[in-house]
Fold this sequence. Notes:
It contains 11 helices and 7 strands.
Amino acid sequence: MLNSDINEQLVRVGCVEEGDVVLEIGPGTGSLTNVLLNAGAVVLAVEKDKHMAALVSERFAGTGKLKVLTEDIVKCHVRSHLLSFIGSLNLRDPETRYAKVVSNIPFNVSTDVIKLLLPMGDIISQVVLLLQEETALRLVESSLRTSDYRPINIFVNFYSDPEYKFKVPRTFFFPQPNVDAAIVTFKLKQATEYPKVSSTKSFFSMVNSAFNGKRKMLRKSLQHICTSEEIEEALESMDLPATSRPEELTLDDFVKLHNLIVKG
Ligand SMILES: C[S@+](CC[C@H](N)C(=O)[O-])C[C@H]1O[C@@H](n2cnc3c(N)ncnc32)[C@H](O)[C@@H]1O
């Protein structure tokens, strides 16, 4: 596989077809953009380097199917940019109000990009990313009772159905980086499919507190929410030991615990 084949794989995994609206992050010189446009997509690209943005914009100016925003994906208002882009297309098919994200993103922004995009299931159907393999495994495959199990795993599964597609060894890149990569898809859930919690803000704040001080039992780390007796009681009513630690709870368990101990 060469760089260009990786782009073909990203587009194939994303099932990109004629008329799809695709958000691409960090197009660089536009090698993936080219494959996306060839597949018939209409592309909104966000590129923070103004020279790259001008270059890619010029390269595909003739297609009339690419808009490039010179912005930092982490700092810009993605939702309003995407909504106004979709609005400008005058689409008839209601399916097309869902965009896909297909990107070969810089590895250093991958966690920020995931946190930003996964809660946008009302306008994005799926996110297909080339990630550093270690990050891909940590996000998708981390399992209970391992030290890799973190709040981000709860977050990813709350908002999406993630899938590790395949590894892309470092030898397939030129120039060769010193890490392997992997293609991962996140099928975004609609708000009606999210686990039922009274407030996502208080839910994730509870999850983060639970993991603060990794080895701590929940009855200690969540004491700012209610007494340790109440936490023990809640855990026992869920058939979990009163001494449970955060890495022993599934997404479902955290949802139940939140609904039991966080009032209102
Ligand atoms: C690894 S990606 C380019 C890969 C490109 N998609 C390809 O297929 O060859 C690097 C690009 O992302 C851009 N970039 C880096 N951080 C960014 C950010 N926070 N927001 C938008 N673009 C970013 C860089 O300027 C660079 O052009």
